[in-house]
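Deliverable D2.4 — example input (structure tokens):
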């Protein structure tokens, strides 16, 4: 039993870190542009299928494919920004939201047409490693540990970007009060474009990292999207630390619930946390002040 619990905790941390990486992109887009980016799941989906195609069909090294996934997701963000977000930014909020939902559905059907509806497994790129906890030895996939390390490095890099660089500080300031930042001469369109490229790139990279764990399939982005919104709201817009705490925490709850109770109860707990946060702390655990309030 102890071995199973430790394995599930490690699995929860790994999956939670990947969720955090993807949710951070959604958080900064929603916080800065006020756009509920329903195509974020399409970016996650794109990353998974790019990784599958390059590794399984083109025999490219998996780690090299991650770079191309990041570029592909950023390119998708660039297209979405100029095709939908920018032209519809002055329209009622419902219009860009519906347009993004429609684009996401189109993207899912394109993927289903090209690759088919069945699951596509992506082999783990590394072997197994022996972990020792007291007197218990656990055989654990080495890829999960590398994915954890990669996600931690990327989250730290994002923290440095948004708290130690000029463009990142402007992004956070725009999330807190966009009107004042614009009055100070900051080009909101350039910041918005940068955010969309970074956000969709992170989504695609997260999809690629998750592909060897879950396989790839056309609805993988849609299934994750609701959970991402929960992580973003619970953690708080504009907060890297809050998103990390919410992402890993929710993933651990779901992983451990599979051992002690059931997946259904884990879902109940997850939504209960969301409701409590909305009732008593609308900006989330560590959200930027005045956002969503």
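Example output (designed residues):
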């Amino acid at each position: 039993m102890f071995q199973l619990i430790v394995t599930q905790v490690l699995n929860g941390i790994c999956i939670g870190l990947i969720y955090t990486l993807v949710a951070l992109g959604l958080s900064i887009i929603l916080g800065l542009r006020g756009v509920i980016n329903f195509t974020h799941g399409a970016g996650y989906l794109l990353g998974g299928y790019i990784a599958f195609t390059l590794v399984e069909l083109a025999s490219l090294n998996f780690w090299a494919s991650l770079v191309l996934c990041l570029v592909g997701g950023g390119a998708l963000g660039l297209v979405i920004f100029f095709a939908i977000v920018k032209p519809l930014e002055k329209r009622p909020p419902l219009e860009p939201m519906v347009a993004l939902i429609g684009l996401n559905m189109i993207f899912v059907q394109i993927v289903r047409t090209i690759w088919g509806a069945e699951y596509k497994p992506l082999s783990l790129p590394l072997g197994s490693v022996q972990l020792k906890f007291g007197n218990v030895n656990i055989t654990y996939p080495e890829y999960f540990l590398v994915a954890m390390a990669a996600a931690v490095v990327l989250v730290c890099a994002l923290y440095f970007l948004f708290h130690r660089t000029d463009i990142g500080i402007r992004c956070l300031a725009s999330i807190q009060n966009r009107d004042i930042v614009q009055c100070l001469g900051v080009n909101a369109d350039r910041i918005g474009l940068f955010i969309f490229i970074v956000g969709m790139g992170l989504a695609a990279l997260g999809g690629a990292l998750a592909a060897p764990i879950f396989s790839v399939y056309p609805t993988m982005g849609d299934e994750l999207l609701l959970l991402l919104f929960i992580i973003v709201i619970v953690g708080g817009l504009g907060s890297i630390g809050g998103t990390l705490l919410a992402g890993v925490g929710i993933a651990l709850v779901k992983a451990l619930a599979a051992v002690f109770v059931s997946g259904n109860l884990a879902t109940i707990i997850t939504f209960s946390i969301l409701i409590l946060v909305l009732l008593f702390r609308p900006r989330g655990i560590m959200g930027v002040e005045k956002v969503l309030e």
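The mean pLDDT is 86.
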